[in-house]
Amino acid sequence: MTWHGPTFRISDGERIDGAWCLVWRRHDLLDEYVVEHLFVYADGKIGYGGHDSTDLAGLERLLATGKITLDPPEAREQRERRDGAPKRSKWESRYPEPRTDEGFVLEVADEILRLAGRPTTADRCLDAVRAHTAEPTEERRLLLRDAYLAVPAHRRVYLLGDMDRQDRPLRMLLTDLGEAVDGDGPVATEDMHRDAFAYLADLTEYIERAEERRAVPYADDPAGAPVPPVVLNEAVYPRGWPAEPGRFVLRNDYDAPFAYAGRSYPTVFHAYWALSAADPADHDRITAAATAREARELGGGAVRRAGWPGERLAVMADLLRAKFDQHPRLAEVLLATGEAAIVHTGTSEGPFWRDEGPRGGRNWTGRLLELVRSELRRARSGQTPAECTAATALRAATRIGSQTGENGGA
Fold it and tell me: Which element (helix H / strand E) includes 19?
């Protein structure tokens, strides 16, 4: 079974992570089977058939009654014929055990655990391998056997990540001395147990070394559950901006006059498009535009100055720094977004600057807001507001001054 994702649903304002796979559902009116998406979520809810939902016990009943099946009808018939044929040797088989309805329910239960960030049956089995190799007692071997048997049967061959030996070392070690492995394989001996144990001990050591190596490049990764993103939706206020600042103040069309390189601009839009213009007259005309929308339209129609595509990210970053340095109340709104990713949407900017959901978009405005937020937080912890503002103003003046001298711009 192949699981796809990520997906999610919203419940009481909370994001519930999920995944989905394909099953067959019996269509009651057509009396035939159709392909259906089966959605599984971290809280245990299982969705199918559009608006229908159930839980693990309900899924078990749906499978038992044939309302949902794992294979199309013709495949089921072939499987039933195979089940009636003479059994192949399990020991000699190189394939996973057949997937059954019972095994699929266990697999879904594992997927729910994974989505919830809890150990799956495979995780618990590998933990039991580590415990047994660290202290090889008969009690721990039996606990390992229980953990191994708890894994869905059709998934056991993948436990050790070795597609040559598959799970055979486990099967050999977990078979009591004098018994045939898998019922039709070789008889378990002390030498076989020693060889299987040595393999698992080497594997455990290899995994531990790999985890230590992996911990180095991932040492700075965020800890804990992911924080839901902050989405900056475009909004129109015909009667003027609300008096109480909300997240709308983070957008580039918000009226927040600021000084940058010796000039004053009404909004980030005014400054960005004015500074992009090759002709100083266009710069002044864009700066004097009555609204951010008019500034954007004038700027979009002006000729760009040389080298602008390679500089625009740095210029936008400087403009955002100047805006939030000079407007502490707006900086508080930005800092209040915490560690969340910032997703900037709308139609007032091109896909380079905004997020377009499944259609793409590079979301550079959102990403630069995250950068400025981080700089503000660092500055507040290590510098006084005056020092921070002075440093940012000097940085901006130096950059734009050199650009003006080279390009004859504003």
Answer: strand 14-27
* Alpha-carbon dihedral sign for residues 104, 78, 159, 148: positive
pLDDT for 405 beyond 60: no
Q: Could you write out the DSSP letters of every residue in 312-349? A: HHHHHHHHHHHHHHH-HHHHHHHHTTTT--EEE-SSSS
Bridge-based pairing state of the strands 230-232 and 342-344: parallel
Amino acid at 280: P
Q: What average pLDDT does the segment 340-346 reach? A: 93
Which amino acid makes up residue 410?
A
User: CB-side exposure of 160: number of CA atoms within 13 Å?
Assistant: 23
Tell me, yes or no, if the pTM score tops 0.70.
Answer: no
Q: Which tokens is 144 given?
A: 């390992």
Crossing angle of helices 292-301 and 280-287, rounded to 10°: 160
Helices marked H in 30-137 — which ranges? 56-65, 73-84, 101-115, 121-134
For residue 333, the tally of other CB atoms under 10 A from its CB is 16
Q: 84 pLDDT exceeds 80?
A: no
Confidence of residue 401 (pLDDT cuts 50, 70, 90): very low
Please list, in sequence order, all residues whose beta carbon lies within 8 angstroms of the beta carbon of residue 393, skipping any fewer than 6 positions away.
Answer: 259, 322, 325
Task: Return d(Cα 221, Cα 28) in angstroms, integer.
Answer: 49
pLDDT value for 82: 59
Residue with the bigger pLDDT between 158 and 402: it is 158
Looking at residue 391, its pLDDT comes to 52
- What DSSP element (H or E) covers 284? helix 280-287
